[in-house]
Amino acid sequence: MHSSGISIWFFIGVMLTIYGAMILGYGLYELTLPQMAVANFHASIWWGAVLLAAGLFYGVRFRPGHES
Amino acid sequence: MFGLVPTSLFAAGLHPASVAALAFGAPSLAHLGPLDIAVIAIYFAMVIWIGFYLKGQANTSEEFFMAGREMTAWIAGLSFVSANLGSLELMGWAGSSYQYGILAAHWYWIGAIPAMLFLGMVMMPFYYVCKTHSVPGYLKLRYGQGSSTVAAVSFAFMTVLMSGVNMFAMAEVMKIVLGWDLNFSIIVSSLAVAAYVALGGLRSAIFNEVLQFVLIWGGALLVPILGLVETGGWSGFKARLAQNIATGAVPGGDYTHMWRSMGHFADNPMGIHWTGIVFGLGFAISFGYWTTDFLVVQRVLAANSLRSARLAPVIGSFFKMAVPFIVILPGLLGLVVLTNGDGSLMHLVGENVVKANPGAGLHSYNEVLPLMMVRYLGPGLLGLGITALIAGFMSGMAGNVSAFTAIFTYDIYQPHIVKHAKDEHYVLVGRIVTIVGVVISIGAAYLVMNAAGIMDYVQALFSFFISPLLGVVLLGMFWRRATKQGGFWGLLLGTLTSIGLWAWVKADPSALRYVAISPDAKDMAENMYRALWSVITSVGVNVIVSLCTTPRPLSELASVVYGATPLPKEEPVPIYKNEWFWTGIAIVIFLALNIYFW
Questions:
Q1: Residue range of the domain that includes B463
Q2: How far does the CA of residue A66 sit from the closest CA of chain B (Å)?
Q3: pLDDT tier, B5 (very low <50, low <70, confident <90, very high otherwise)
Q4: Nearest-5° angle of CA B274, CA B281, CA B590?
Q5: CATH number of the domain encompassing residue B514
Q6: Containing domain of residue A37, as a range?
Q7: What residues of B are in contact with residue A43 (Cβ under 8 Å)?
Q8: CB atoms closer than 10 angstroms to residue B504
Q9: What pTM did the predictor assign?
Q10: Per the structure, how many domains does chain A have?
């Protein structure tokens, strides 16, 4: 899927990067708030970080013009 | 996604009348914040971006309808399994697992894996080598125009109708979960689907299916992970479940084993016997759907080589085996972690109970997945989970619309209306038919909205055609003696058998004891045995009629029948790229899962 232009994995990388940054950012902000009674185990922080890392990997690895 | 929906929706009890009744006046389950709305908005922007970007790569009919046959094995495989991974499936089966336990995983394992591997290893060479563009296209090559047209018309009609029915059901779900207006959900999602499929054709649909696949895992995977953390792992969950059963907080039953209670219809809450699961679900329904439903087969036909086409279903099978982790497990975990505001264990009930007690604050089985999302997902993550549900719906609709477009243009318009036009003409027709398909879907959605009871009939209608088609395709592919007349009459009488058995049970529910060969059989068993009888009829009629009629000479069957088709030699590859190696791994994992949860 590289020969005909931008790879689908690049689109996925962009999307995951945006989502990861947003969710991780909120998770960090959430740390400053009083503890909520929801059993989320600070999921926003580590799940946001996972999404961000995956997004950056795919975004860079499959960036336009970079043949893998 | 819709081939297995009839079974699953019936199974899950997600009947439109009850869903509609639930929607009106019920408070929404979740409330989205600005971050969640932003997550959803970004998804819509992304799919439209992809549609516009791919517009320039959908100029020829091969590009528009077959994605240029350029998909890698991974993309075709993820798209193949993603087209089936709809939101209603996710929610319905999560609800079923809350109600029936891990039995629901049969629909993901024996109800999918053997058929997917069979498609990849055995059937795909014939589909791929004959360069057909569709399943009706294969029937035309093998049996002639008559069978092809019957299959094409029924598939096109039912596909677009099912698309509308599911659009309505999804809008209802959005109303229940988020309190969104029905018209808003239908119009916004339809416009987005129409835009990106009409612009980018099948390539755009496939790209978005892969995107949706990633979103579903990104949005839903966190729920079972956090659930297992909270319950102390699988053994901790089982201990808490056993405690709840012992105290009567959860109805008694075996929620964590798949085969032990299958010895007799009366031994399990689904009212099914293992023969129904193995031969009805595992063969007639599953093989019918995964190997002949053009919605999923189209994705594999778009692969860039025979090896990719064979590997795609194998890759898909690994992810299909993992889906119960994000569907079945959350439903099971709901049995021990969902609590009311006062800390007491929440009891989900059937739709009829919710309907009979409006204002009582009851929730139905089908709401277990959204309830689990609300429990575990905070701002942003909840938006991601909801986006996964929306993406699942839109991807399913796009899959139906792109399949409808290809079937209508190639198998109805080209052979019967305008036979010899320029390639650009058929691409233009494809774009117009995409819009028309979406408009018909919207019409069907509003039709169902005003007469919700017809949804049951529409779903049943779809199931009538799949199993008999399996009998015809299998015989056509592996028996040279099968004739044009045999294929036509096998398809017709197999379908009539299915319709007849369905009507018999509808008119006289006690007839189920004859259809499913047990007085203890329940509704779910009917689908399985009905599918089995229709395959048997289809094959039997095909054999008898074929033996009484003249077969086509072998020279005319090259590339469509086993024994008359020279398969291309494939270049040797390292073992980790070999399709047979990965098929073997998939079989081992499939067997291990069934043994572990026996």
A1: 5-596
A2: 18
A3: very low
A4: 80
A5: 1.20.1730.10
A6: 8-61
A7: 222, 226, 376-378, 381
A8: 15
A9: 0.87
A10: 1
